[in-house]
Amino acid sequence: MPELPEVETIVRDIAPRLEGRHIQFAEVYSPLVLRNNKGSLSEALAGRKIVTVGRHGKHVLLHLDRGVLVIHLGMTGKLLFNTEPTRHTRAIFSLDDSTLVYDDIRMFGSLEWSAALPERIDRLGPEPFSITDTEFAAALRKHRTSIKALILNQKLIRGVGNIYTDEALWRAQIHPKTSASRIRKERALRLLNAITSVLNEAIEHRGSSVSDYVDAEGRKGGFQLRHNVYGREGKPCPRCETPIRRIVVAQRGTHYCPKCQRA
DNA sequence: ATCTATTCCTGGCTGC
DNA sequence: TGCAGCCAGGAATAGA
């Protein structure tokens, strides 16, 4: 499940292999992964030059000489170079000197060409590294929903998903069901630090491979070995040895230490 | 306006 | 061994 660190890893890897190249042609095998270009994505992309490659939250952006290709990897999306198509290959992009293959088992991901960054993506919250302590604390006080649900909401900050939310809440010692509005300045600051530090460490380790995440070369990340709570139900908390508990918050599997993270 | 529940999708796992 | 049934979850959407 690619979140910010996984997408950042992919973008850093693929940027030098894409920038300056042209999309000679694109082929779509599963229109389900298209958003608003049903039937016209290939035409929009044919002959376009890839100028720069970037990341916006969990989105990969290919800035073209005309418009932008927005790629969201969803749960199981992969961008791979020069692999043979499989039954999960949803699209291919034939470039000057390589072929970029988009695989996506569950098809929660999406491909979208747009003349400019689509509004709904442009309107997402800031990168976690950009928001200030004051802004973050003020935003928390405005919402009565659980802190877990609020961090997952891409309109607050963009790029953080289920894994890194659980990891950050463990680091900050905050119970996932805590009402966001009840988190005052000091704890909010601790939480924002936890979020940015866990994201940075995950980037250093090339992301987490818990189910089937791999980078553009098919390599797994290494940060899953450093998870403290995610996917560790019943195992001892690294801080206090209490067994990690798994509950459901905001319709998501949620892992926390019942002793370190009191309600 | 804010929040919650539902929907999409398929491989992998569980239990009979 | 086979297979039905359930689960994982990002984000759009519908509903409260």
Summarize the structure.
The protein has helices at residues 4-18, 41-45, 119-122, 133-141, 147-152, 162-172, 185-204, and strands spanning 23-28, 50-56, 59-64, 68-72, 77-81, 89-95, 99-104, 110-114, 245-249, 252-256. The protein is an alpha+beta fold and 263 residues long. The strands form three sheets. It has a four-stranded antiparallel β-sheet with strand order 1-6-7-5.
Record keyword descriptors for this entry:
263 residues, alpha+beta, N-terminal domain of MutM-like DNA repair proteins, Helicase, Ruva Protein, domain 3, 2 domains, 4-stranded antiparallel beta sheet, 7 helices, globular, DNA-binding
Task: Give structural notes.
With 263 residues, the chain is an alpha+beta fold. It has two domains: 4-122, MutM-like, N-terminal (N-terminal domain of MutM-like DNA repair proteins, Alpha-Beta Barrel); 133-256, Helicase, Ruva Protein, domain 3. Helices cover 27% and strands 22% of the residues. It is built from seven helices and ten strands. It has helices spanning 4-18, 41-45, 119-122, 133-141, 147-152, 162-172, 185-204, and strands at 23-28, 50-56, 59-64, 68-72, 77-81, 89-95, 99-104, 110-114, 245-249, 252-256. The strands form three sheets. The protein has a four-stranded antiparallel beta sheet. Strands 2-3-4-8 form a four-stranded antiparallel beta sheet. α1 crosses α7, α4 crosses α7 and α6 packs across α7 (185-204). The radius of gyration is 19 Å and the shape is globular. The two termini are 28 Å apart. It binds a DNA duplex (16 and 16 nucleotides) through residues 1, 3, 32, 58, 72, 74-76, 88, 104-110, 120, 143-145, 149, 152, 154, 161-162, 211-212, 250-253.
